[in-house]
Task: inverse folding
């Protein structure tokens, strides 16, 4: 009889769970609005809340009401976190370009090295 190989222990992946949208008639639009609202202004397709309201077919007052709901901020912060994660490689690339240029500061280099996991603490003398 052959011994069975022990399966390696794994940790199940926990998805980022969003709260359930309750008592909102246009749930999909509510989530789209939170994502739009969490996007930095200079990167939004529609610049104003009025333009965004027209794009999803609701009145601007509805958006103002949605912003007052407690779950709205949870969705906005989730959108911000996702946006930041998505842009991180570009930020690291920009930081690298700045840190490796002749226009760099010690602070730029320090930030880049920290991000790379290089310990630059002066107190670690052997």
Result:
């Amino acid at each position: 009889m052959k011994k069975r190989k022990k399966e390696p222990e794994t940790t199940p992946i926990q998805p980022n769970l969003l709260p359930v949208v309750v008592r909102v008639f246009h749930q999909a639009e509510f989530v789209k609005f939170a994502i739009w609202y969490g996007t930095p202004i200079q990167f939004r397709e529609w610049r104003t809340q009025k333009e965004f309201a027209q794009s999803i077919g609701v009145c601007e007052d509805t958006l103002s009401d949605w912003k007052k709901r407690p779950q709205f901020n949870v969705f906005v912060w989730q959108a911000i976190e996702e946006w930041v994660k998505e842009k991180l490689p570009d930020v690291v690339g920009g930081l690298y370009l700045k840190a490796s240029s002749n226009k760099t500061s010690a602070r730029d280099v320090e930030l880049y090295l920290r991000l790379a996991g290089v310990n630059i603490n002066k107190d670690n003398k052997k």
